[in-house]
Design a protein that fits this description.
The chain is an alpha+beta fold. It has five helices and six strands; from the N terminus they run βββααβααββα. Helix 1 (25-35) crosses helix 2 (40-52), helix 2 packs across helix 4 (69-81) and helix 3 crosses helix 4 (69-81).
Length: 132
């Protein structure tokens, strides 16, 4: 199932089933690093999987992000060990196997909810007077 999304500037409009989310990608990566204590590579891989809205293998993620495949595999192993991504075996055409990684929907919904709350907070702060 492909997730329809539209991107304008750094704002991503993500649609999951009936839910529509407006997500600032930079803010999402910051949230992932701060709240979940992820490093830069883990946050980049996780945010990419969220944006894609479907499962991908490490090779395709590395290619899309223009990153070293081993760096991506290391990030995916870490994310998997922390239960932030799920994986299932994916047979390769020339033999061997890889894993298909995806972000569980409940986690995406929770992260989008937090991002929306952060947006509300930023708007509230911007409207506050300079002197209290």
């Amino acid at each position: 199932m492909t997730t329809p999304l539209v991107q304008r500037d750094s704002i991503l409009y993500l649609h999951l089933n009936q839910d529509a989310y407006h997500v600032n990608i930079t803010r999402l990566k910051c949230l992932l690093k701060c709240v979940l204590s992820l490093n830069e590579e883990e946050a980049q891989v996780l945010s990419f999987l969220i944006v894609q809205g479907r499962g991908l293998i490490a090779k395709d993620i590395a290619s899309s992000l223009n990153r070293n495949p081993e760096v991506v595999r290391r990030a995916l192993r870490s994310l998997y060990s922390r239960k932030l991504v799920s994986r299932k075996p994916y047979p390769l055409r020339r033999g061997g196997r890889a894993y298909m990684y995806e972000v569980p929907r409940p986690l995406i919904r929770m992260l989008m909810s937090i991002c929306m709350k952060m947006d509300e907070l930023m708007k509230t702060v911007s409207r506050l007077p300079h002197e209290l």
